Amino acid sequence: MISLTPKDVLPEDGTAGTLVGRVWLPQAGGPAVVAVRGDGVFDVTARFPTVSALCEEADPAAALRATHGERIGDFEAILANTPPDGRDATRPHLLAPVDLQVLKAAGVTFAISMLERVIEERARGNPSSAEAIRKEVVRLVGDDLSKLKPGSEPAMRLKQVLIDQNAWSQYLEVGIGPDAEVFTKAPTLSSVGTGMDAGLHPKSTWNNPEPEVVLVVSGAGKIVGAALGNDVNLRDFEGRSALLLSKAKDNNASCAIGPLLRLFDGTFSLDDVRRMDVGLTVKGADGFVLEGHSSISKISRDPTDLVAQTIGPVHQYPDGFALFLGTMFAPVKDRDAKGEGFTHKRDDIVTIEAPQLGRLVNRMRGSDECEPWTFGVGALMKNLAQRKVL
């Protein structure tokens, strides 16, 4: 069971920034949009029925600061009541901090994740083949492509060299080609938050966490804030065929976002995201520990480019979207057999952290073991209407 305190999940500057969350209110039979402040958690649903509506404001951070709301409790108590095992269903608990936003994700935006996707493709979902293929791919492509601008002349020259050597891949196409890979990660409202169980398809035997920064973007394409995310991935499913991407990515509880949404204000900006260091820790019940750190500064495409490739005349998202920026981690540390690398085991605790965004903590379970997702868009609209906040 996960046990969390505010110190475990809040940013290093505590509540100095403008922090938005969602809380399940049992007495209302639905979620509340909340501001997390130094003196408690405040329900602002009467002013902003959804987080999406708040993000459509001209200045979301200023609009939230100007709204006092109704205090519903201490963050500590609400957070402590969030893990499913010990939850008191009569008291509030945290949810993921996004709602009507479409859940989008960008893939292969870092050199290391691009190389691992090529390896998955060639291994065809078999982890025992990965190490030998990894050495061959690195020999051909190299292991430092962070300075190679996608779509540039040098990138296109490298593409031709690899085609000539019969080493080209669909993942290299989206990694160094002009067009980014942007896909729909999961249905609207399906993400889980910090302290909750995250899901793995029960048939998967080779999988991994994908720690990422998640941008929250308005319907007009304006980036308004950020959170942390785990774009849980099944390496065996996607490795067998890229056409299995939806099964590799979209399963019950397989999209985790949190702990809170930090809006851009005087304490936090997009430039802070560009410089952000992200850490990953996996702790298993078997004593296994995996740790890693990396920086968004190594991303191959600027966040604004990824947003521009997601929304525009061709694609519209009137309620906005949450965009996973891609992972800079590809866990390859052997867990069991030598050369087979990493895969999850039941009850792994995954912590994704960044100083300005806090910590997203989830326990890994089979998707069929996680709490079922039953409260969708229709239920949300009905609930808000009954509460007369629409």
TrEMBL record:
GO terms for molecular function: hydrolase activity. Keywords: Hydrolase, Metal-binding. InterPro entries: FAH, Fumarylacetoacetase_C_sf. Belongs to the FAH family. This is Fumarylacetoacetate hydrolase family protein.
